[in-house]
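Give me the fold.
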Amino acid sequence: MTDSLGWRQKFAVLIPSTNTSVQPEFDAMRPAGVTNHICRIRIPNIPLKDDADFERLISLIAAAQNEAVDSVMSCEPDRLVLGISAETFWDGLAASRTLKKDLEARTGLPVSMGSEACAAAFGVLGMRRIAVLTPYQEVGDRNVVRFFEEAGYEVRRIKGLRCESPVKIAHIQEPELRAALHALDGDDIDGIVQVGTNLAMARLAAQAEVWMDRPVLAINTAIYWHALRAAGIPDRVGGFGSLLERH
């Protein structure tokens, strides 16, 4: 017998407690027979005024992460899905691989995470020269650029929105996101990727692919697509762009 609702897969989804975007966006992408089980990393909603504040945020997440992971394991999930992206890019490619290895060892589960999901998505979308949109402070942007360049991609432009707190990342509205996408666009890139999982951009990215005529990848779409495909679930989900609709 299997779970009556999650008869195909039960995903344990790891997010910071301040994140209000991953859960609704992942649930909107969820095909029948797959269930999402949120595990919240308990952190305060600290001000993000500069690089030091952002580095403190990453430290707080790392310190509280294992408690959340251990808690969700009691529902016997099939896969751990990181609904958090900054940590997966932090300190470059080698650190990202170590993070995944450590989480796999702790849980005994396969892991899907933003950094690896982006690389897989870039492969099927034909993206090598990229522009990047983030909600981060400068130190976060530097770590994102470092990861992508170490992974073999050319970052032609990056725009950080410098959000004032973790919660306020989810307050960014579509007009500001559209303006940022236009500022990043150009004939020298293959596509645009948005990172920062609390920046709700999955549906807007799908729309932007139409009027920009190039791949526009939202991190939450990339993560959930990776989790589904790695679990052997081929369902195509409309409304979230070419990645989930065609690959």
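The beta strands are 9-16, 34-41, 79-82, 111-112, 129-134, 154-160, 191-194, 216-218.
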